[in-house]
UniProtKB/TrEMBL annotation:
This is DUF1501 domain-containing protein. InterPro entries: DUF1501, TAT_signal, TAT_signal_bac_arc. It comes from the Bacteria.
Length: 394
């Protein structure tokens, strides 16, 4: 490897983007050391946040099959009652969600209905920003998990985001989640040695250079922690691959309290039934398989999975057999620690806000309970005052 000065490397290297302020880039060989030396305490709650990008159609996910207004609004897009996985005499799940139906019957699935925020925005970017920052009133630079990181210490593996892009929810003012990219290759021996040198501080360093060195020091901590992990086993289902990695981390005892995973493609403006059913099938396979895999492990009872999308869809189908951007939708919370059932009121299909469902539950109440009951922290610095638990954590 050619000799490069530390200053030149700090200024010119793309490694800064991967390992610096935007998040600590990590590889497969990086969690075993921490798992063996400082494992997660027994009984500590573990939160897995699954983001469904694109705006999932909630009405064709949790289906009001007994409501004539549903069928009238979507004469060719709606599901007939006999196609639906009935949960009660009014509502049922999309036929692709057989694993979630099993979780419901086991009372390990909570469905929070009508979740949204005040003055909804139909933009993917703004609405996702609101969900990930927990700030509907004004844009802020930090995410809700990032603010939890800022408030609870400096361990770089408290939160891990699986994927090549660090989501806004994982960004704090002082700390960010570690980023574990399933597609990345381990650093070479020469590059690892170079990074080790970059982590050393020098008396003449400026404040900015010192901050960068701290970032590289944290990266070394992370790289010792994520050892012996292998890529997810399902290339055909990216969410299953991500959750397979999360399962490995949990079973190894990695001291991570929050994981972030994602699945995209839910912007179904056309040919929605086929597209959404395929996506929900992948989601169902990944989530139910993940929870089933952990159900017999001692740490499985501590795992809670949240699944949400940035908004639901319009009640009425469009001319392309799809739906356009809407507002409120259902949120899934699943796991052995969950008190299964319905939470929040079902939005009415005839009492609409300019064609959109009216929100009945503020999403920050969902976050409040997850922070309070799963991550065991004070939710107020993260989601603000005036919020409450909904009661879905047993």
């Amino acid at each position: 490897m050619a000799q490069v000065s530390r200053r030149q490397f700090l200024v010119g290297s793309g490694v800064l983007g991967a390992l610096g302020v935007a998040g600590l880039g990590v590889t497969w060989e990086q969690l075993q050391h921490r798992a063996s030396t400082t494992p997660l305490a027994a009984g500590a709650g573990i939160l897995v946040v699954a983001t469904l990008y694109g705006g999932n159609d909630g009405l064709n996910t949790v289906i009001p099959y007994a409501d004539n207004a549903y069928h009238d609004s979507r004469p060719e897009l709606s599901y007939r009652p006999e196609e639906v996985l009935h949960l009660d005499d009014q509502l049922g799940l999309n036929p692709a969600l057989k694993g979630l139906a099993d979780l419901w019957r086991a009372k390990n699935l909570a469905i929070v209905r009508g979740v949204g925020y005040p003055q909804p925005d139909h933009s993917h970017f703004r609405s996702m920003d609101i969900w990930q920052t927990a700030s509907p009133a004004e844009p802020v630079p930090t995410g809700w998990i990032g603010r939890w990181l800022d408030a609870t210490g400096d361990d770089p593996v408290r939160a891990v985001s699986i994927g090549s892009v660090l989501p806004q929810l994982a960004l704090g003012a002082k700390h960010t989640a570690a980023a574990l990219d399933p597609a990345s290759a381990p650093l070479s021996a020469d590059m690892s040695a170079a990074v080790s040198g970059l982590a050393r501080t020098y008396p003449g360093d400026s404040a900015a250079q010192g901050c960068v060195c701290v970032g590289y020091q944290a990266e070394q901590t992370v790289s010792k922690t994520f050892s012996s992990l292998k890529a997810g086993k399902s290339a055909a289902n990216p969410l299953a691959a991500q959750l397979d990695l999360v399962s490995q981390c949990i079973k190894a005892g990695v001291p991570t309290r929050v994981y972030s995973v994602s699945l995209g493609g839910f912007d179904t403006h056309a040919d929605e039934r086929h597209t959404q059913e395929q996506l929900l099938g992948r989601f169902d396979q990944a989530v139910s398989g993940f929870l089933r895999d952990l159900s017999t492990h001692p740490r499985g009872k501590d795992v809670v999975l949240l699944a949400y999308s940035e908004f639901g869809r319009r009640v009425r189908a469009n001319a392309s057999q799809g739906t356009d951007h809407g507002t409120a939708g259902p949120v899934f919370v699943a796991g052995g620690a969950i008190k299964g059932g319905w939470y929040g009121d079902e939005p009415g299909l005839t009492d609409l806000d300019n064609g959109d469902l009216k929100t009945t539950v503020d999403f920050r109440d969902v976050y409040h309970e997850l922070l309070h009951r799963v991550v065991s922290t004070d939710p107020t610095p993260v989601v603000g005052g005036g919020r409450r638990d909904l009661g879905f954590v047993a």
